[in-house]
Amino acid sequence: MLDHILSILIFFPALAAIFGFMIQKDAIRAYGVSVAAIEFGLSLWLWFAFDGNVSGMQFMENLPLVPSFGINYILGVDGISLFIIVLAAFFTMIGIASLTDTPNEKNMIITLLFLQMTMVGVFAALDAIVFYVFWELSLVPMLYIIGAWGGPLRIYASVKFFLYTFAGSLVMLVGMLFMAYFYYQATGVWSFAILDWYRLILPENLQLWLFAAFFVGFAIKVPMFPFHTWLPYAHGQAPTIGSVILAAILLKMGTYAFIRFSLPLFPDASAFFMVPIAIIAIIMIIYTAMVAYAQKDVKQVVAYSSISHMGVIILGTFALNVEGISGSIFLMIAHGVVSGALFLLVGVIYDRRHTKMMDQFGGIAHVMPRYATIFGIMLMASVGMPLTINFVGEFLSLLGFYQQSHILTLLAGTAIIVGAIYMLAAYKKLFFGEVTKEENKNLKDVNKRELLALIPLSIITIWLGIYPKPVLEPINNSVEAVVQLMHNKATSDLAKERIPNLVEEVVVITKTSVQEVH
Amino acid sequence: MFEAVAFYLFAFLTIAMFYIVVTTKQALYALTALAAGMIFISAFFFILGADFLGAIQIIVYTGAVMALYAFGMMFFDTTRDVKEKQGNKFIIVGLSTLAAILVVVIFAAPMVSENVVALYPIVEGVGNTQEVGVVLFTKYLIPFELAAVMLLVAMIAGIVLAGKKMDLSLTLMNSEEIEEAKKQKNKKVLS
Amino acid sequence: MLAPINVSLESLNLMTLAPMLIPVVGALLILVVDLFKGGLHKSLYVVISLLFLFMDFVALVDSSEIFSQSGITLGVFNLMLIDGLAILSQFIIVIASMLFIPLAMTHKRFHEFSYPEFFALFLFMIAGFQFMVATDNLILVFVGLETSSLALYTLIAMHNRDKSFEAAVKYFTMGALAAGFYSFGSMVFYALTGSVEIHQIAAILGANGYADIGYVLVAITFLLASFAFKLSIVPFHTWAPDVYEGASASMAGYMSIVPKIAAFVVAMRLFEFLIHSGVVWLEVILYAFVVITMTAANMWALVQTDVKRMLAYSSISHAGFVMAAILIGTTQANTALFFYWVLFSFTNLGSFSMLWMSRQKHLPDHQSSDHSYDKFAGMIKTAPVAALIMGLFMLSLAGLPPFALFWGKLYMISSAVTGGYTVLALIMALNSAIAGYYYLKLVVYMFMKEPVMGNDGQVYVSNATLALKTIIGIAAIGTIFAFVAINPILEFITAFVYNSGY
Amino acid sequence: MEKFLYIALFAPLVSSLFAALFTTTKKKTFVGIIASLLIFTAFASSSVLLAHILNNGAPIHVEMMTWMATGDLYIPFGFVVDQVSVTMMMVVTLVSTIVHIYSIGYMDHDKSFNRFFAWLSAFVFSMMILVMSDNYAGLFIGWEGVGLCSWGLIGFWFHKESATWAANEAFIMNRIADLGMLIGIFLVYWNTGTLQYDGAFEAFKTLDTATLTWIGIFLFIGAMGKSAQFPLHTWLADAMEGPTPVSALIHAATMVTAGVYLVIRSNELYDLIPHVGLFIASLGAFVALFAASMALVNRDMKRIIAYSTLSQLGYMFAAAGLGAYWVALFHLMAHAFFKALLFLGAGNVMHAMHDELDPFKMGGLKKVMKGTFIMMTLASVALAGIFPLAGFFSKDAILEAAFVEHHYIIYSVLLFTAGLTAFYSFRLVALIFHGEERYKLFGIHPHEAYKFMLVAMSPLLILAIIAGAMKGTYYEMVISVLPETEYHIHSHLVYWVMTIGTQLFVIGAVVYAYKKYADWKSVPDGSSDVEQSFMYKLLYNQYYIPYAYEEYIVKPYREISEIFWTKVDMKVVDATVDGIAGIIYGTGEKTRDMQSGNLSTMLKWMVAGTVALLSLAVVFGLAARNSDEIVAILSALGVM
Amino acid sequence: MEIGLNHYLVLSTILFAIGLVGVMKRKNLLLLFFATEILLNSVNIAFAAISHYYGDLTGQMFAFFVIAIAASEVAVGLGLLIVWFKRHGNIDLDSMTSMRG
Question: Residue D452's CB: how many other CB atoms inside 10 A?
Fold first, then answer.
C-alpha cells in the first residue's frame, strides 16, 4: 500500500466524493469529516514513512499514460512537497469539520473533496502534464465554491479568478511544450517528466524565454504584483472555507512550482531574473501591505496580507541558496497555517454578524475574549513574531536573500513593519475600544466546532515556531539537492556566482559513508 | 480570322446578356437574357471544338434549367418589376471591378505552362462526343455515377421541399396538435 | 478511331469503393422500403441507417488494414485514393454519423424525422463526404462536395420552421458562390498544369519551379475562399452562426464536425504541398486566417446570448485553431488535426446533444431564444446530473485538463511549438483563455444562479429518450476518460498520417 | 546549576500560562499570588545562579535544543548565565517579583486581573530569554517577545482609544528598529557564519572595519528602538497609558534597558569600532538632555517619569558608547531600582487620586500618604544622584568616564542634565506631596495604598539606597566579561572638585525646584506668561516631534495607502486587467454587426474576402515576378 | 489576330466578375440564383478553352460536371425558394434577417 500511497492520497478523496452523491444530506458532514480524516491520517502515514534524510524523490510511481508523447503518470514526494500535502489534507479536514451556515452542504463537501484531489495531485505530480492537469483542475472546484457560496460579487470574482489563472497557465503550458520539445531535440525522445528535464542544460537565452513563460503562469497563481488583483476579489467574495483553502494551499502552488520548475530547470535565468523578481517581491510586500492598511473589510486585509507574505516567499525562493529556499518553503507552510486560520477567524464573526466591515465592530474583545486571544495569536504569527511558525520562514527567507543583496533585503525587511501596521490597525478596529454597536453586545464567543479547527492551528503555529526541525530538516535536505543541481547546471558566471556550491560538503559526506562501509 | 470575329462577337454578346441579367429590373428580361447568354456560351463550345459540351449546354441549361426557372418565376409571381433596395453600390461595383481588374491583370500576362502534358489528348479525326464518352466512362466513371446520386439527391430534395408535407410543421406543433392533425388527415403525411 | 480499351477488373481495385457504396445502398434501401410500405416509424430508419453505417465502419476497418499492409492504394482508374487521411477522416465521418443518427429518437416529434427521405439523404450525404475525402481529383472532390452539400441544405430545411428555411437558404446561396469559387480556382490550376489531380498539379508546378506564381496565387485564392467558406474561416464564416441557429441542435452539432473534417482533408491535400514548396504568401494568409478566425470568433462568441449561437461561434474558433495544423504542415501538426477533431467530435456532439435534449417547442416568456443562457440558470438545483454533464462538456471545450479537448489542444500547440511557430502557439493558448470566458458563462448560469421561477428541471430532459441519453453518456465518457485512449489513438493517427506522406 | 537556569527561565512561562488559563474567568486573587510566587521562584533561582557566579565565576552555558537548522545556518535554543546576564536576571526577576506582588493590590479592582498577570509573567519570560540567550537569534526572540508583551500591557485597558493607540505605536516603532536589528543579525551571520555570541565575537576580530561598522550600526538601530532613543522615542511617553506597574517594570526597569544590554553584550564588537561607540555616546548624551528638557514642563506625572527614564537611558548609552560597559550596566541596575520605585510610588498616587495624573491638581499628599511620600522622595534623591544613594555612584561614574575619555562636550551635557534631572524630579515631588491640597477642588479623597504594596516596594527602596555599596563587588564580578576599564581621575583635586561641584549643582537644582513648586497654589490654566512662551510650548509639545510624526509620516502613510488602494490598485492595476477583458468584449460587441443577418451582406463579405486575398496575391505575384527590378529600384533608393 | 487562351481566360474572368456583381447586387433570390449560374458558366468557357488549347479532354469533363452540378443546385434552390415563398409570399432576401448578431 505504501508503494501507491500517493495515488491513494490523490484519488481516495475523489472516489469518496463520487460515492458522496449517494449519502443522505444529513449525514454528509460526518461522511466528509471521516473521509478527510482518513485522508489526513494517510498523509500523516506518508510523513511517518518518509525518510527525512533522503534528498531525492520518494514513493515514486510511474505509469505510462501517453508514452508516445512522453506523458507519464509519475508521482513522488520530497521534502519540498511532503508538508504541503499534509497541510492540504489537514486543512480540508478542519475545513469540513468547521463548516458552518452553508446551504447545499452536500455539494460543498463533495466539491471540497474533489478540490483535495487536485491539491494533492499538484504537489505529488512529477510529470509536467500531470502537474498541469491537476493545476488546472483545481480551478474548477474553487470556481464553484466562490461562485455558488460567495458574496454579492461572487460571479465576477469567481470568473475573474478562473480566467486570470487559466490564461496564465496556458502560457505556462506553451512553455512546458517547448521544454518537452527541447528534450526531444536533445534526446530524440519525448518526455514531460520533470526529473528528466532536470538533466537538461539549456542555453541561456532559451532559458530566459522559457523562464518568462513559466513565470506568467506561476506569477498569476502566486499572485505576484501586478497580477494580483484577482485575489482580493476571490477572497472578498469567497465563503470562509473557500478563502481558507485558497490562501492556505492554492496560492502555494505558484511558489511551489517556482521551486519545482523554474529554479532547477532554468538556473541561469533564475539568477538573471533574480533582481527584477526581487523588486517585484518588494513591491508586493510594501505596496500590498499599504493597500491592506487602507481596507475597510477585514477579509480584504487578510487577503492583501497574503499577497504581502507571498512576496517574502518569492524573495526567499529567489535567494537561490539553501537558507532562503528552505525558508520560503517553510514560510509556505507557515503562511498556509496562519492565513488559513485568519480566514477561519474572519469567518467566525462573519457567521455571527454577516458583515466583514471593520467599522461594524469594535470592542469585541470584551464580548469574545477567547476569540480575541486566538485572533491575537494568529495576528502575532502573521506579523512574524518569533516562536511562531511564520517567523522561522520569514527569518530564513530574508536571511537567505541577504546574501544576494543587502539593500533589497533591507527594503523587503520592511515587511515586518508594514505588516505590523495593517495587522495591528485591523486588530484595533475589530477588538479594541468600547462596544458601540448594539448587535455586538451579545455576540457569542467561539463555539466548540470553531475551536476544533482553531485550537489545532494555534498549536501548530506555536509548535512549529518553537521546534521547526521535523519539518525543516527534510525540507533542507531536498533543498540542498536542488541548489546543488542548480549550481551544477548553471552555465553563466552570474549564476555560478549567485548559486552556492555545496559540493564539498556532499563529497565529505559521501567519503564518510564510504569509510563507514569499509 | 473567323475565329477572332466569332470570339469577339460572342464575347460581346455574352457580356451584354449577362450584364442585362444582373442589372435589369424586369425579371423576365433577366431570364431571357440568361437563356440567350447560355446559348451564346454554347457557341464558344462549338468554336472550341467541344461539340458535346455545347449540346449539353443547350439542352441542360436552356432546356431544363431555364424551364425550371421559368416555372419558378411564374410560381413566385416575379413577372412584375423587381424592387430591390440597394445598399452601398460602391462596395458592389468597387469589389467586382477590383476583382475583374486583378484577375485580368494576371491573365493578361503570358502563362508559362511548360510541362503540361495532356492526359487525355484529343485525338484527331475522332468525334468529340466519342472521345468524351470514352473518358467519361473510364476515368470519370465514378464522378459520373456520383453525379447521378447527386441528381437523385437534388430530386428528392426538390420533391421533399416543394411537397405538401412541408405545409404542416411537426416541429412547431405540440403532441396534441399532432394527434389532432393525424385524425383529420389520416394519411401517411404524418407518419 | 479510338483503340478499344481493356481494363482488368483487378486493376480497378473496386474494394476502394466499398465504404462509399455502402451508405448509397443503404439510402436506396430506405427509399425502396418507403416505397413499399409508407408511414413506418422512424426507429426503423434509424436502425437501418445505423446498420449501414456500421457496415461502412467495418469496410473502413478493412481498408485501413489494407492501408497498413500495402500503403496508399489507388483504385478505379486511379481516381480513388485510399490513404491515411482518407481513412482517418472517413472514420471520423462515420463514427460521428453513428453518434448523430440516434439523436433522431427524440421524445418530442420533429418534422424531419418523419420523412424516410431524411435518412436517405443523410446516407447520401455521408457517401458524398466519403468520396470527397477519398480522392485527389478535383472533379470528384467537387461532385462529392456538392452531393453532400445539397443533401445537407435539405436536411437543414426539413426541420421545417422559418429559421431553418432561412438558414438553409443562406447556406445554399453562399454555398453556390463558394462552388463558383471552387470551380474558378480549379480552372486556374487546370490552366496552369493541364491537370486536375492534386499530385499531378504539385508535380508540374514543382517542375516549373513555380514560375507562374501569380497564377498559382489566384488559383489558391479561389480555392482557399471556397474552403474557407466550408471551414467557416473569418470572413467567410458568416453563414455558420445563422445556420447553426436555424438548424436543429443535433444537426448543428453534426455540421460542426463532419463537413469540416472532410473540408480539412481536402484543404490539407491542396495546401500542404504549396506550404512545403515555400509559397510564403499562403503561409502569411493562413497565419492571418488562423489568428483572425480564432480571435474574432471568440470575441463574437463572448457577446452571444444564446448558447447554441455561442457554440456556433465556438465551433468557428475551433476550426480556426485546427486550421493552424495546415499552416504548420508537419506530420505532428497533421496528426494533431485528426487527433483534435476526434476529441472535438465527442465533446461538441455531446454539448449539442445536451441542447437538443432540452429543446422546447414553445418558448416561455422569459426565454428570448431556443437556448438562451437564462434557460439554464440554476440547472444544478433542478437537474443536477444534466448540469454536471453539460458543465463537463463546457470545460472540455474550454480545454481544461484532463478532459478530451485538452489533449487535442496540447498536441496542437505542441505541434506549433515544434514547427517553430512560437508566437502562434502563444496566440492559440491565449485564445483558449478568451474562449474560457464564454464556456464559463454557461457554467456560471448553470451552477451559480438561481433557477427561473416555475422551472422544475423538466425542461432540460423534456426531449430525453434512452437513445439520446446513451449518446450523451458515450460522449461524456469519451470526454472524461479520453486520457486512457490518448495513446492508442495518437499512435494510430500518427502511423496513418505519416504513412500517407503528410 | 542548569536546573536553576531552567527554573529561572521557565518559572515565568509557567506563571504566564497558568494565569492565561483564567483570562476569561472572573478575577481570582490566587492567580496573582501564584504568579508572584513563581516569579519569586525565578528570582530565587537567579540568586542561586548569582551566588554561583560570584563564587567561582564559571559561566553556565546550556543548549536546550535546536531551533532552526538549514544550510549552514544553525541556531539552537542556547542559554548562557555569565556575569552580565546574571546581573540582568537579578534585576529582572527582582523588579518583576516586586511588581507582581504590587500588582495584586494595584489591579485589585480590575476585572481583567488574571489577564494582567498572564501578560506580565509572559513579559518576564521574554525578558529572561532576551538576557539569557547565547545567540543573537535567541536575543531576538526575547526582543520581540518583550515587544509583544509591552503591546499587550500598554493596551491592557483596550477599551481606551489612547491606550490601544499607544500600544500599536510602541509596537510599530519597535518594529522599525527591529528591522535594523534583523539586518544586523543577517550581517553577522553572513560574515561570521554563526549567530552564537562567542563564535561571532571570535570572528569579528578578523573582519574589516567597514563591515563591523555596519553591523554595529544596525544592531544599535535595534537598540535605539527598544530603548526609545531619538528619533524613535515618542512611543515611550505614550506607553504610559498602560497600568502603572507595567510602566514600572517594562518602561523603566527592564525592557527599555534591553538596548543597553545589547550594546553591553556586544561589547567586543563595539570595542572594535570606537567611532560608532562615540556616535552612540553622543546620541545618548543628546537624548539625556533632550528628554530631561521635556520633563521640565510636563504636566503628566507618569510622563515626567517616563522622560526621566529616557534621559537615564541616554546616560547608559553614553557610558556604553564610551566603552564603559560595566558603568552602563551598573547604572542600568541602579536605575532599575529607583525608577521602578518611583513608578510604583506614582502608581500609589494615581490610585489615591483616582487616576488623576496632573501633579498640579494634587499637592499636600504627604499627609495622607506618608509611606509613598518617603519612598518617592528617596527615589528622587537617588535619581538626582545625590550621595549616598545609588544614583550617585552610577551616575558619577558615567560623568567620570566621559571626563576621563576627554569627551568634554558629552561630559558637560551630562552634567547639565544631572541638574535638570534633579530639578524636574523634585518639581514633581514638591507638586505632589507639598503645598496646598489642590485636589480638594476636584472632590477627591485620597488614601494610602495597601500595606502589602508598600512592603513589596520596600526592597526596592533599600536597594535604591544601598546599591552604591555593591559597586565594588559588582565591578569585580563583571570585569571577567566586560572590558576592564577603571576610570581614575589622576588628580585627586580635580576629582573632589568635580564630585562636590556636581553634588552642589544638583542640590541647588533640588532646592530651586522646591522653592518654586513647594507651595504652589492654583492649577495653571495656560494663561501665564511662562506657558505662553515659545520655549514652554516647544518643550510641552515635545518639540512637536509627535505632531510631526503624525503629520508627516502617519497621515501621509494613511493617505498613500488609500491612494494605492483606490487609485493604483483599483483604477490602474485592476482596471488594466478588466480593461483588457473589456476591450476584447467590446470589440466583440462592436463588430458583431458584421453578422447583420442579411444574406446580401454575407455574400459581400465573402466576395470582399476573396478580393482582398486576390489583391494580396497580385501584389505578391507582381513583386515575385519583378523581384529583380524591385531590388534594383530599392537599392538605387538606398533602402537595401 | 490570333485568339489565344488568354483571351478566353479574360473573357471568363469578366463574366465571372459580372456574376459576382449579380451575387452582391441582387436581393431577389431567384435573380441571385441567375447570377450564380453566370459564375459557373463563365468558368465553363475557360475550361473548354483550356481543353481546346491543351488538347486535353479533362477540361471538358470538368465543364460537364459543372453543368450537372448547376442543374442540381437549381433543383434544390428552387425547392427552398418554394417553401419560403409558400410561407412568406416573397423571395426577397432582405426579409430573411431573423437571425443576426
Answer: 12
